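I am writing to request your help with a piece of structural work I have in hand. A protein sequence and the structure tokens that stand for its backbone fold form the material at issue. Please examine both parts with care and let me know of anything in them that strikes you as inconsistent. The record follows directly beneath this note.
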Amino acid sequence: MRRTLTMAVVVAALLVPGGPLPVAEAGTVAAPVAAGRWSAREARSFWTAGRMASAVPLPPVPPGLLDDTDPAPPEPAEPAEPDEPAEPAAPAAPAAPAGGIPVPTPAPAVTALPLPSAPPAATPAPSPAPSTVPTPPRAPSAPVPLPAPARPAVPRLPALTPGIGQNFDGLPVAGRMYLVKGGGSYFCTASVVSSPGRDLVLTAAHCLLGSDTQQVAFVPQYTRAKPQPYGIFPVLRDAGGRSRIWIDPRYRSQGVDRAAALDVAFAQVGPDARGFPVEAVVGGNRLVTGAGYAHARVTLIGHPASAARPRVCANRTRKFTSTDARIPGSFLRIDCTGYPGGTSGGPFVTRYDARTGTGDVVGVIGGWKTGGDKADTSYSSYFGADVRKLYEKAVAGAKALAGARAAAGAKGPAGAKARP
């Protein structure tokens, strides 16, 4: 479908089903930027309207590429979860190759993580199901300017026919994730996920894989007519200059095929140029894990390569179990027309609330063949215990960085205490 693009020969154009992928013209290659400060100000200067418009979906990731680098700081080991029972009616999954990951199966109970933020004028978000966990307390963070930024009314979605995608003006909670790789400018789709620090963005792991991924920034509700309607949010860097991205280590070590069931990534973004965290500006979807594969209605959002606006579709999902031993696992499948290159990382949203423009995110385009090999059918890795643990690791890492920055801000040069 997109995501996995094919290259006929070295000098051939990149192709996606339904037509050629736009190739960056001369002069659109990203200029190198010195390592160092990467704030909203630098991101806005780097990601100009012209550079964003000329960015293209990532080229194919070679199946043999293994990436051992883990930019996130090591976290304390977590106790192993008990095995989860498989769905009674599910077809048996093929055995994974030696050393491969187990086939993820849904947890017996749904686990919903922090409630999505609602715009100031919106009514409260729906109450979580009885089996959901309580909303964790907000992590201490640097002071945020008050009052909270005002947001316009959430745009209405067009009338949707099940399975038929339509271009629309987008939603604040979803947008494009831009990055530089090998000197070229690329993008995927991403969305804000509610978190204690209000600073996490969700996308597909294959979009952010590789130690050469640089100048990463999230732009909510990008359209060619309005490139940055809510500003730009840079993916933060650690002391070594590496982007704050959390990807399951097995996805890095085993590769995009053998670990296709783990094609999920979280990234920590800094505030916008005014100092507001992303979730305070555009809201956030609630992460839900263990909800199963079959959903009666999922809203799918993605940014196609050649389109000036994002795309939306609604349809049911069902379980798809791979019969290809090279790509083991079970995935969510949705049939929605017109999701080619660029839509990787787009959220699968259930219980969409038109008043808040948010809902429950149960998947992202990726996983089987990094999202599918046809533009009209998309897949997602299953959101189970592994994704919940990855989210918790990202939350803990984001909290640790916020604490370190707060401590550093209370001291002057060379660690001396700042004057009162």
Residues 4-35, 68-108, 115-136, 413-420 have pLDDT under 50 and may be disordered. Helices lie at 40-46, 49-54, 205-208, 249-254, 278-282, 385-409. The chain is about 15% helix and 25% strand.
